[in-house]
Design brief:
563 residues, alpha/beta, Rossmann fold, 6-stranded mixed β-sheet, 23 helices, 22 strands
C-alpha cells in the first residue's frame, strides 16, 4: 500500500505497505485524490490529495474520526457522492484503468459488476415495497448479467446459503420489515457479491447492529470474500474490528492520509501523533493487540467511574418489580418484557445490556412512562407510574429526561441550537426569555461547545457535537434521572470516549442518576456501577459491574464479553 502523500512535509509519518513492491499485487491505486463539497457559496475540501494502493485479495480498513473523510472516500470510488460533492483532482485506478476517465454513464456498468458496495444502513438501503427475492434478482438485471433465469436462481440460493441462511427459498418471498437488522445486512452482502466483483467496499457494515449480530455479518462477509477471492475496503470507526479483520489500514485525519501500512505494524507502533491518539482512545487496544473486555476492565484499575458506589440505604431512583409487557395478539403476540425486577441506586450508572429484541428498549420506555406495564409495578423517583394520570406523568418528566441513540435523527434540522436546547424550557415555561437564553449559553458551555454555536443548525455539526447538543437539551430543566439510550453507539472511538467523559463529569457535578441502555459491554465496563443483562425479555444476570464482567455466570453474558 503506497501513500503518495509521503513526499509532503505534513504527512511524513505515512507508511508504505509491502504491496507497492509488486504492481501485480495491486488492484486499486488512488493518486492525489481531492474531493470537495459546495455549501452555499463556500467550498469545503473533504479529501485533500489522498493517495494509496489496495492489495489484491486483501482487506484494507479505513479508520478515522467522524468528518475525517472515510465515507467520502468510499463514495468517491463508487461514484456515489451527493449532488454537492465533486472529485476536484486525482486518479482512481482499478487494474490500471483510470475510472475517473469514464463518464457517469460509462461508469455505471462497473457498479455492481466490478465494484460492489455494502451500505451502512440496511433499513434505508432496501425497498420496503419489494420482496427480498425481487431485490436480489434486480441486482442481476441492473448489471446486465448473462446468466439464464435458472442460473440466477441457483446462484442466489447458493449465495444466501454461503452467508448463513439455512432455508433461502422461504426468505425470497419475505419483505425487509419481516427480517431482523442482521438478516437485512446479510442480504446487502449477498447483493454486493452477487456479480462476483473484483472489489467490494463495505461502509460501516456493522455500526447499526448489535455486537453479536455484527460478528455474524462480518463472518458472512469474510466467508464469501475468501470463497471468491474478492478485495475488500472496509470503512469503520471500530478500531478493534479493524484490528481483527483487516490486513492493511489507512488512517485519515481531516481529509488527509496521515498513516498507512499493515494493520499489525500500524497498530503496534503507530508513528503519527493522530494515529497514536486514535488508538489510545480505545481501552481495548494495547500494543496492537485487542484485549478482552475483562482484560481492559482490569487494566483500568480503580477508575473514578467505578469508585464510591452509592449507599445501599438510599431509596432507589428506579424500581421495577415483576414487570411484564406484551405487544400484539394471537400469532403476533410478543412478550417483550417478562417478569423483570431491578433497582437503580441514586447517583449511580445502571446499565441494561442486551441484543436487539431483548426487551431493553421496552424496559426504558416503561421507565420513561411511554409504555404501561401489563403486570408488576414501576416506581420512578418515588412515584408509582401505574397510578399517575397525564398531569402526573408530565410533572414527572420534568425530573426525568432522555438522550437518544442517533444524534442525526433526534435533533430538529429546521431549528438552530438555541431553539433546540430551549425546547424543554419553553415546554414547561421555565423562566423569562432572557433567562432561557442565559440558560442555553450556560448549557453550551457545560457541554463544551462555543457560545457562537447557538445560531448553528444540526447539519452544521459533527455527530459528537450533535450528541453534546442532545445532552445539553436533556439537562435544560435540571432533571434528576437521565435515560441514556445507546448514547455513543453511532459515534467514533475518540468521540465515544469524549462523550462518556463528559457524561461522567456532569454526573459528578450534578449528582445525576443514569439509566444506560446499550448492547456494548465494553461501554458498560467503562462507565457502569451496576449492570443487568437481558435476553428475550428476561434478566439472565445482574450485579456489580466487576462481578458481571470478571465473573459472568450466564453463557449469554460470556458470549457478549467474548466479542
Amino acid at each position: 500500500m503506497t501513500d503518495t502523500a509521503t513526499t509532503t512535509p505534513d504527512r511524513t509519518d505515512a507508511r508504505t505497505a509491502p504491496a507497492a513492491a509488486d504492481p501485480a499485487d495491486v488492484l486499486v491505486r488512488v493518486r492525489d485524490l481531492t474531493v470537495t463539497y459546495r455549501r452555499d457559496d463556500a467550498v469545503d475540501t473533504a479529501l485533500d490529495g489522498v493517495g494509496f494502493d489496495v492489495r489484491r485479495g486483501k482487506v484494507t480498513a479505513v479508520i478515522g474520526e467522524s468528518g475525517s473523510g472515510k465515507s467520502t472516500l468510499a463514495h468517491a470510488v463508487v461514484r456515489l457522492l451527493p449532488g454537492n460533492g465533486a472529485i476536484a483532482a486525482g486518479a482512481i485506478e482499478l487494474d490500471d484503468e483510470d475510472l475517473l476517465a469514464r463518464t457517469d454513464r460509462e461508469f455505471r456498468p462497473l457498479r455492481g459488476r466490478h465494484i460492489g458496495f455494502v451500505p451502512q444502513d440496511p433499513v434505508s438501503s432496501l425497498n420496503p415495497t419489494k420482496t427480498i427475492g425481487a431485490q436480489v434478482r434486480e441486482a442481476f438485471s441492473l448489471a446486465g448479467s448473462a446468466l439464464t433465469a435458472e442460473q440466477v436462481e441457483e446462484r442466489i440460493l447458493g449465495d444466501l446459503r454461503d452467508i448463513g441462511f439455512a432455508a433461502p427459498e422461504t426468505l425470497l418471498a419475505r419483505y425487509p420489515h419481516e427480517l431482523s437488522g442482521g438478516m437485512r445486512q446479510r442480504i446487502l452482502v449477498a447483493i454486493a457479491f452477487s456479480q462476483r466483483p473484483r472489489l467490494v467496499i463495505a461502509d460501516e457494515p456493522t455500526s447499526a447492529l448489535d455486537v453479536l449480530v455484527g460478528q455474524e455479518v462480518l463472518r458472512s462477509l469474510h466467508d464469501v470474500r475468501t470463497k471468491h477471492g474478492t478485495t475488500v475496503v472496509l470503512i469503520t470507526h471500530d478500531l478493534a474490528l479493524a484490528s481483527r479483520n483487516a490486513d492493511d489500514v489507512l488512517v485519515l485525519e481531516a481529509g488527509r492520509l496521515v498513516e498507512a501500512g499493515p494493520v499489525a505494524e500500524v497498530f503496534a507502533a503507530p508513528r503519527h501523533p493522530y494515529t497514536r491518539a486514535l488508538l489510545a482512545s480505545s481501552a481495548r487496544l494495547r500494543e496492537g493487540r485487542v484485549l478482552s473486555i475483562a482484560e481492559a476492565y482490569e487494566r483500568h484499575g480503580p477508575d473514578v467511574r467505578r469508585a464510591g458506589s452509592p449507599s445501599a440505604e438510599a431509596p432507589a431512583v428506579v424500581t421495577l418489580d415483576g414487570v411484564s409487557k406484551s405487544f400484539g395478539g394471537g400469532k403476533s403476540h410478543v412478550r417483550a418484557v417478562d417478569g423483570i425486577s431491578l433497582a437503580v441506586a441514586p447517583g449511580s450508572t445502571f446499565a441494561l445490556v442486551g441484543e436487539s429484541g431483548s426487551g431493553k428498549t421496552t424496559t426504558s420506555r416503561l421507565v420513561l412512562g411511554l409504555e404501561s406495564a401489563d403486570a408488576g409495578s414501576v416506581h420512578v423517583l418515588g412515584e408509582d407510574l401505574g397510578t399517575l394520570d397525564r398531569k402526573g406523568l408530565r410533572a414527572l418528566r420534568r425530573r426525568v429526561q432522555v438522550v437518544y441513540q442517533s444524534p442525526f435523527e433526534s435533533l430538529n434540522p429546521r431549528l438552530d441550537l438555541r431553539s433546540i436546547i430551549a425546547e424543554p424550557l419553553d415546554s414547561f415555561r421555565v423562566g423569562s426569555r432572557a433567562e432561557r437564553r442565559a440558560r442555553v449559553a450556560e448549557l453550551l458551555d457545560r457541554v463544551r461547545l462555543p457560545a457562537s454555536y447557538a445560531t448553528r443548525r444540526p447539519q452544521e455539526l459533527s455527530g459528537g457535537q450533535r450528541q453534546r447538543v442532545a445532552i445539553a437539551r436533556a439537562l435544560a430543566i435540571r432533571p434528576e434521572l437521565l435515560v441514556l439510550d445507546e448514547p455513543v453507539s453511532a459515534l467514533d472511538a475518540t468521540i465515544q470516549a469524549q462523550v462518556l467523559d463528559l457524561l461522567q463529569e456532569i454526573q459528578q457535578e450534578l449528582g445525576l442518576t443514569y439509566f444506560l441502555v446499550t448492547h456494548d459491554l465494553a461501554v458498560v465496563a467503562d462507565v457502569a456501577t451496576q449492570v443487568a443483562v437481558m435476553r428475550r425479555g428476561r434478566l439472565v444476570e445482574s450485579g456489580p459491574t466487576a462481578d458481571v464482567v470478571l465473573r459472568p455466570q450466564d453463557d449469554y453474558t460470556r458470549a457478549l464479553l467474548a466479542v
